[in-house]
Structures are given as structure tokens and as C-alpha cells.
Amino acid sequence: MADEPLAELDGKTPMQVAKTPNMDRLASKGVIGAANTTPEGMSTSSDVTNMGILGFDPIKYYKGRGAIEAASLGIPMETRDAAFRMNLVSTDGEIMIDSSADHISNREAHELVETIDRKLSSNLIKFYPGVSYRNIMIWRGGSDNVSCMAPYKIHGKPIKDYYPNGDGDSKLRSLIEDSYEILDNHPVNRKRRDEGHLAANMIWFWGESRLPEIPSFLSLTGMSGSVIAGVDLIKGLGRMVGLSVADVPGATGYVDTNFAGKAQYALTELEKHDFVWVHVEAPDEAGHESDIEKKIKAIEDCDTLVLGNILGGIEARNYDFRLLLMPDHPTPIATGAHSPDRVPFLLFDSTKQQPNTLPMDERGALDTKLIVDYTPDLLKMLLDS
After folding, report:
1. Domain holding 325: CATH number?
2. What pairs with residue 91 in β-bridges?
3. CA–CA separation, 71 vs 128, rounded Å?
């Protein structure tokens, strides 16, 4: 959700331009701070930043992305196995065109992954469908000592310059190249081209990882909890630490997600648990697409359809509550990639409301004196305030 000032918005950010009456209302009676969510020496990725926000030190527990998403899908893994995120991507055989394959549908993606698994799997290597372009490959007994580039970082660049490098790289490269031969003329992709969509004609590995040894959220906090999300990464983090995972119909991880459904399910989960973690991917995806209007609309939908409905439900139930609201990292329109810059956060306690003039946006993050450099402290602030 966080961004940088844009000339197209007269020097403002999408957060500053978006109409966010619910965030504004909470900010006027809450606390605004700024957080560094990327630990020094680590990459700014959603798995790293969200692990910290959830209260777990990524420097201590992070072992890579693939295993987290595998956990979300319930894929069996042992500590000796390597897990890889496997995107379905669009290429012309040489250039990375789109790392999301034009946000391919689940149905189409599953058919393509099933074809890949049928033709390329072995006793050691297995392919699993996930959500849309986000899928998983497990290499039994494989190594995660290999460097794989996230595909969204190489749009418009030659793919061979960014092939995996390290243990087992020749096998990974051959799977990538073989996938292009299998998928480029697949019936799903012939139909997609006829309908004006990009073909999902190659697999791309990244997020190399192993299973971490991580404590439960209950043992960390003494609370039970639930996670509401549309993407496997967030569900996987929740499942790894023992949170219940609610599956919201129509939650896509994109701007067409079921915003209101996430609020409805959050309220249902709050009747069963002490803590609910709600994640919305839409502003991030709009940032990756460098689409200003789409990002503003996504932020407004988060405010009205998610936050607004949650607040309405909480107030109707007459709950006392505490709330932490924040982006996990900036995804600036200008670059279309994640940024390690500070993000604003909002802490609200319905029993300890206080006047505040700082806005819940990047200006507030610049002006606040409340700076959090160790991300797990945010959860302590939320629970101990």
C-alpha cells in the first residue's frame, strides 16, 4: 500500500490521494508510527516482512519462501527436501514478459501444472498447483543452496541471464526450458491467445527453501488465532505457526478479490479466536503493475469493504478491540518492485482512544517520533498496549 510521491498525483502518493474515511477515523484517535520491516541484510519480500509482523524474527526463523507456500497447500515435506515457488510466466522464449501470466485463472493454471507434472515429474521431483500463477515444486532430497531470481524483478530482460545458479542448477534450467516446449502450444494457451491474453508458456523457479523450525503463535502469545488471505504465502505462514486458515470464496490475491468476504470471514473468526490476521494483496499487485488508478482503487476498497465492514461488525457486537493496520512493505508505482523503505502503521485501542493529528500515510511515517526497527515488536505493542 505504501509508495513514493508521484508527479502524476501532484507530488502525493496513492495512500494520500485515496479516500480512506475508516483509516482516517481510526488515525484521529490512535497512534501513528513508522516501521522498518526489512531486517538488515535480508531482501524485501512478503515472506520476510510478514513473518516479522506476525511476531517471529525472520533472521532467526526464515528459511525461504517455497516451504511456506507448500505448507499452505498441505504438501508433505521433510527437512531434507527443497521447496521452490514455481510461477507460470509469459515469455517469448527469450524475454520475461509477465511474471503472473496475465493473472491466469486457477482453472487454467491447474490444467497447465497437471500437464507439467505428468510430463516432467519423477520419483524425486513433483509439481503442485496453487493459486493462479503461484505454484510449487518439491525436490525430495534436493538442495536449496541455489540462487533463483524472482521473476517479477526481470520483466523485459533475457531469461537466460537470470537462470538458477548453484547446486542442481542444470536440472532446474532443463525443467524451465522443457516447460516452454510443453506449454507454448498447449490448448489452454492457444485459447488464451485467441481471447487476447498472454500465454502462460513457461515455469520459473524461485523462493528456494527448507522447512523452518518455528514455535506456534499460541506458545508465543498465549492466544489462538486465524488468518484471512488470498495468497498461499500468507496462509502458509499462518499454518506454520498454528493459526486456523479460513478459505474465503473469491479471494484471488488480486484487485478482483472478494474484499467484503474477507471482512465477513474475519468477523466470524473473531467469534472463535482472540486474534485475526487479515491480509489483502491487491495494492501490492497494482504496484507491481505500476497502475496508479488501480492502486488507488485497491486502497479505497481495503478501507471501505474490508476495514469498514470489520469495524461495523465489531461495533455491532460491542467488542473492545485493538487493531494494527499497516503495509508489509512499499511497492512503488515508479519501480514496480518492493522497496525496503519505512512503512506507516496505525495502532488503535478502543479503550484508550486519544487525539492524534498525524495521517495514516507516508507523511505520518515521516513526521512520527515512534520508529520501530525490530518488526516483531509491533505484535508486542498490539497485544501489550
Report:
1. 3.40.720.10
2. 96
3. 12
Give the pLDDT confidence of 240-272 residue by residue, as tens digits.
999 999 999 999 888 999 999 999 999 999 999
| Helices and strands per DSSP (H, E), number in the chain | 16, 14
Does residue 76 lie within any of the structural domains? no
- Asked if residue 98 and residue 45 are part of one domain, the reply reads no
Burial class (CB in 10 A: 0-12, 13-18, 19+), 196: exposed
Q: Dihedral through CA 71, CA 228, CA 302, CA 270, nearest 10?
A: -160
On whether residue 71 sits in a domain, the answer given is no
Cell readout for 52 is: 516479522
Q: Within this chain, do residues 110 and 27 fall inside the same structural domain, yes or no?
A: no
What is the C-alpha separation between 250 and 26, in angstroms, rounded? 28
Q: How far apart are CA 179 and CA 172, in angstroms?
A: 11
pLDDT score recorded for residue 385: 57
Strand, helix or coil for residue 336: coil
Place of cell 522498518: 36
Instruction: Tell me which residue range forms the domain holding 325.
Output: 7-62+215-384
